[in-house]
Amino acid sequence: MEKSTRQGFTVKRIGGYLHKIVPVVDGAGKVISYAVSPLMWELRPRDVMQIIVGASVLAVPVAFTEETWVLGQILPLGNVLALGAVSVAFIALFVYYNFYRGAMKGHVMEYVKRVVAIYVLSLVVVGGLLTLIQKCPWRADVLLAFKRVVIVAFPASMSAAISDMLK
Q1: I need a surface site. Which of 73, 122, 124, 141 has the fewest CB within 10 A?
Q2: Which residues contact 26 (CB under 8 A, 6 or more apart)?
Q3: Is 138 left (phi over 0), alpha (psi -120 to 50) or beta?
């Protein structure tokens, strides 16, 4: 078991997973119990699968709508890039407040890895799905294909982040 103390709690590895151990004290300051909760600082294969499934949850219905295909044609590239940036910002905030708030020190690379994994895996799921339904013309119009993937990845990445939070 790994053990370290940070901000009034202890981190221990139990059954291969990191857990936060917080002492529960009485009025006199005596420890009467411990609250144990899993920490999701490490990106594991199980998390990757949850991200993929979570991205699919909203990618499927959104990718099958003609509105998103048309939006990819008419929306300027700058707007699509801004949508991608907003998506990454939302993921970063969501991951920070749900996984790393109050314990970011020493875990910045794990945080960045999780945010990037959520967005990139969402792009891959969406790109694969749109390619399968022949709405991503990679050979004929790469820009259109890219724009459609980023547009559909916005809701897909949000559902991937939420799915990643579930344990």
Answers
A1: 73
A2: 32
A3: alpha
> For 149-167, what is the mean pLDDT?
92
CA atoms of 128 and 8, how far apart (whole Å) = 45
Is residue 1 within 8 A of residue 12, CB to CB? The reply is yes
In the structure encoding, which two tokens stand for residue 101, read together?
A: 């708030």
Extents of the domains making up the chain: 3-38, 45-165
3-state helix, strand, coil in the chain (%, to 5): 60, 15, 25
Residues contacting residue 128 through CB under 8 Å, at least 6 positions apart:
none
Tell me: the pLDDT tens digits for 46-60?
889 999 999 999 999
Residue 165 tokens, joined? 């939070």
Q: Identify the sign of the CA torsion 123, 125, 128, 130.
A: negative
Which amino acid is residue 30, in one-letter code? K
pLDDT in the model for residue 3: 45
* Residue 128: strand, helix, or coil: helix
Sequence-separated (6 or more) residues with CB below 8 Å from residue 130: 63, 136, 145, 148, 149, 152
Q: What are phi and psi of 16, to 5 degrees?
A: 90, -5
* pLDDT at residue 21 in the model: 73
